What does this fold into?
Amino acid sequence: MTLAPPRRDMKTHLLRIILSAVLLTTGSMLAQQRVEQWDRFETTLRYSPERNGYLDVTLRATFTGPDTALTVSGFYDGGDAFRIRFMPERIGSWHFSTSSNVPALDKKHGSFECIRASGGNHGMVRVSDVTSFAYADGKRFYPVGTTAYAWIHMKEERQERTLQTLAGTGFNKVRMCVFPKEYDLIKTRPERYPFAVKERTAGGSGREKIIWDFDTFDPDFFRHLERRVDDLRRIGIEADLILFHPYDKGRWGFDTMPRDVNRRYVQYLVARLSSFRNVWWSVANEWDYVKSKSHDDWEELSKLVVASDPYRHLCSIHGSTARYYEYWEGQFTHVSIQDDAPVQYRGGAATLRNVYHKPVICDEVGYEGNLKYRWGRLSPEEITYRAWMGALAGIYVTHGECYMSENDTTAIFWAEGGDLKGRSWQRFAFLRRILEEGPGPLSMSDIGRDYYTASAGKGYYIIYFGKDTLDTWLFSLPVRNSGYGRVAAGIRFKVEIIDTWGMTIEPSPTVFETTAEIDYRVYDTAGRRVQLPSKPYIALRVTAVD
Amino acid sequence: MTLAPPRRDMKTHLLRIILSAVLLTTGSMLAQQRVEQWDRFETTLRYSPERNGYLDVTLRATFTGPDTALTVSGFYDGGDAFRIRFMPERIGSWHFSTSSNVPALDKKHGSFECIRASGGNHGMVRVSDVTSFAYADGKRFYPVGTTAYAWIHMKEERQERTLQTLAGTGFNKVRMCVFPKEYDLIKTRPERYPFAVKERTAGGSGREKIIWDFDTFDPDFFRHLERRVDDLRRIGIEADLILFHPYDKGRWGFDTMPRDVNRRYVQYLVARLSSFRNVWWSVANEWDYVKSKSHDDWEELSKLVVASDPYRHLCSIHGSTARYYEYWEGQFTHVSIQDDAPVQYRGGAATLRNVYHKPVICDEVGYEGNLKYRWGRLSPEEITYRAWMGALAGIYVTHGECYMSENDTTAIFWAEGGDLKGRSWQRFAFLRRILEEGPGPLSMSDIGRDYYTASAGKGYYIIYFGKDTLDTWLFSLPVRNSGYGRVAAGIRFKVEIIDTWGMTIEPSPTVFETTAEIDYRVYDTAGRRVQLPSKPYIALRVTAVD
It folds into this structure.
C-alpha cells in the first residue's frame, strides 16, 4: 500500500498507519494487507484542512478489483484524518486511487488483497428469491429482530449490558436510531451528539438548550456508533439503522434540520458506515409523524441514501400504524411496516407478500409490555402468536419489549436496552430455530384456500393452529404445495408437534401415507389423526420420509 | 356542422347525415346539434377506401371546446363509413377538425353544442377521494358488480333476457369479455366475431376451425358490442370490458394473435368505445393464464389502452388467484383483483386499501354456485359475507353466480347471462342501498385496532359482526373515527340493526349518549346495550342524532 508521506499532527494515528503498513512492501502480494470478503478495508490520508474539513473538502476513491470497480466517498474524521473505507465483495487484488479538491488527498493510491471469508462471516444480507433474505454467501437469513431505539445513547454500562443481553437471545437484527430519542419513557441524557455544539443555553423546564454547529460533525459520536455496529456484528446481529425519527420534540431539533444539513448528514453517515456489512438503512421511523418533512423530502432522502451507498445495503422506510409508503419504488429493497392487521387474522400477511413482490417485515405489530399505550401492552403469548402468523405466511415480525416497573428505575428494553424481562424473546429464538431448520423460506401452500398450511420445500410443511385449541388433527394436506409441485399419492410423512409457546417438539408416532387427491386435498390412506395437546399456539412440522 | 360533400355509395347513411344536419345553419347556436355532457357526438365521413380501410387509412379529429382540446381517433366502420365519436365533458360549443392521410377525410370540420346532462346521466365514473369512485357530476359510485363474461356472445333471446334480469337487480357494473369464451360450461357458438373470416375448415372434435383475416375487423361485431354497452348504460350499469382473456384453448386463437394485431385491436376498440361513458377497461382477465403473452406484453397493452383513450376511463387488469399486478403503475386507476384472502378474515381488505392508495375491487372472491370447482360453490351466505367484509373496509366485492342444473340446459349467469337463480344477488342490492344511504365511502374507524367498526362521516358508523352470533352488543365506539375527528363525550346516537341476510333494518329503541374516552373508546353513559337477534350476518348502523 502506497500512501502519501506522513504530515504534521500525526500523533496517535501515526502508530496505526505504521502497523497497518508494516507488512507491506511494494509489489509483494504476500506482504500486502489482507482483508476478508465483506470485511472492512480502511486507509487514512493526512491533511489538516485550513477551512471546514466536512464542508470544503471532497474525497472519493475508486476501488478496482476482480471484474469490478466501485467508487466510494471518503470522509473527514476530525484533526488531520481523512479516511476511506471499503468493503470488498470479491476475492482477489484490489487497487484504489483517490480524487479530491485538495492536492494532498488527490491521486493517492494503494492496494490490498481480499481473501475468502472465514468463520461466521457470511457477508451482507440481501434480498433472495424475491420475498426472502440471504447473506451474500448464500446462507439464508430469516429476520428475527428486536427493537432498542436509543440504546447507544444510554450510559456506557447499560450499553454493555444490552450487548450481553442480545448475545444471549436469538435476535439477529435490532432496530436502532442514529439520533437520540426524546420520550417520556427515556430520561438519560446522551453523552455524544452528531454535531458540534455552538452554544449551550438554559432551555425551558430546567433543561439546557443546545445550539448546534450543523456545519461540523462530531466524529466521536460516529466512532461510537460504529463501535456499537461492530459490536453487534460480532454477535451476529444486523443493525437496522434509523436515520430520521420524530422523537425529538424540540429538545435537539434533529428532526427539523435544514434541508442541506439533512442531505449532508445522510452522505456523511453513509460514507462512514456503508462498509459495515451488517448495516441496514431505515430512512425513518414513523416518517409521517415528522411534521417538518414532506413526502418529497422522504423521496429525496431515501434516494440519496441509495445513491450514496455503493454496496446497496438493505433499505426501507417505516411509518406509523398502517401508513404504507410506496414500497414498490426502486430505492426500497423490502417493506418495513408498522401494522397489526396483517398478523392478527389469517390471510393478511400472505396478501402483503403477494402484493409487493419484495420481502415484508412487520417492524411493529405492537410490543410485549405493560404500558398504558395499547401498542405497548401485548401479552407475550399475543406477540408470539403474531410472529408465527407472519412467519407462516412468509413475512417476518419484529419483537419489542416495554415493561415499566413501578418505581420506574428499570429500563424499557425497547427504548434503552438493558435487560429483557418478558417471556416472548425466548419464543422468538425458538421460532428462528424452526425457520432455520427448514429447507427454505415458508410460503402458503395453497394460497387463498388453506390459511393454515405453509410449505418450505417439496415434502416439507409447517401448519400453525394459532389460537385454535384442538385435541386431534386429521392428517390432510393441500395438493397445491406453493411452488414445489403437487403432492402425489403414496407419499409417507412424519409429523412433529411443535408447542410454539412451550418451545417443545414432540414426534407423533404415526407414519402417514397420502391418498390420491380428494377435492383439492390428500389424506392419510387410513384416515389417521395426530393427537394434539388441546392447547393454543400449536404448530405441526410435516416432513416426507424417504 | 359542416361536412365534406356527400360522395358516391352514400345509400342508407345519407339519410342519417341529412337528419343530423337538418337543424344546422352556419353561425346559429340554436340550430346546432346538441349533445348532453358525457353523451356521444358522432359524425360520419364518406370515403370508399381503395385498399384496406382498417390498415391504410389514418383518421384523427381534434375537438376544441371550453378551455380544452382533445384529439380522438376515428375508425373505419366498413363500406364507405369512417366515423368519429366524441364524448364532451364540458358544456359549451365544440368544434372539430380532422386530419387524415386520405384527402377525402382530411381537414373536415364541424361543431356541436354540449348541453347540461339531464336525468340519470351522471357522466363517467372516476376515482374520487383516493380510494373511492364518483360519477363526473360528483354523485358517489359504489361498485356493486356482477359477472357475465360471455353474455353478448349468446343467442339474441338470452341477451335480451340478461338485460331484463340485470335491470331488476341492484348491480351497477358487469364484467364482460369482448372476445367469446371457450369453456366446458359454455356451449353456444357465437354469431359474430371481431375479425373477418378468411377460411373455414374442419377442426378437431367435429368443430369447424376458422382462419381469420386479422387485417379486417368485422364492424358488425363491434356494432353489436356497442349496442349492448348502450343497453347497459340505459339501465345504469357500467360495462367493465375485458379486452383479453385465456379462455380460448385453440378454438379461435384470439389469445395468441400476433403482437401487431393485439395493438391494432386495442386501438380499434378504444377508438370505437371510448366515447361510451359507461365503459371501463379491464385489460385482461387472468392475465397470467394467457401463456402467449409476457409481462412486457401486458405492460405495453395496458399503456396502449390508456394512451389511446382521451377520456381516461377507469382501467385495471385482473389476474388469477392472488396474482397481484403492479397496480401502482400509472396506467391503472384502480385495483381489480382475484383473491379470497382479503375478505375471508378481518384486516386484509383494509390493508389492501392502505397499501395501494387507489380504489380496490375484489372482482373475484369465489362465486355463489354448485360447481365442482371450489371457486364456484360458495353458499349465498358466504359470498354475501365476503361482500360485507370488503364493504366494511372500504373496498368492493363483485358478485358472480354459477348454478348448474342437473340436465345442464340452464345457463350459468356468470358465463352466459340469462336468469339469476341464487339468493345473494338480492343481498348485493341491499348492500348497495346501505352504502348509498351513507354520507360517504366507508373506511375503518380505528385502523389496525378495531376490525368491526367503519366510519362514513362524522357521527356515522357501520359495525359488521360477520359470522359472530350475538344476543347483545354493549354500545361502544372507538374514539378514532377514520379521518372525521375524534368522538366527544355527550354525543347522542341511535342504532339500527341491519340483518344483511334477511335484508331488514330495525331501529333500536334506545338513544345512547357517549361517555368521555375510556381507554381509546367511548361507551354509553348508562352502559346500555343493544339487543341483537342471535343470528350471524348482523350489522349496525350507528348515527348521531340532532
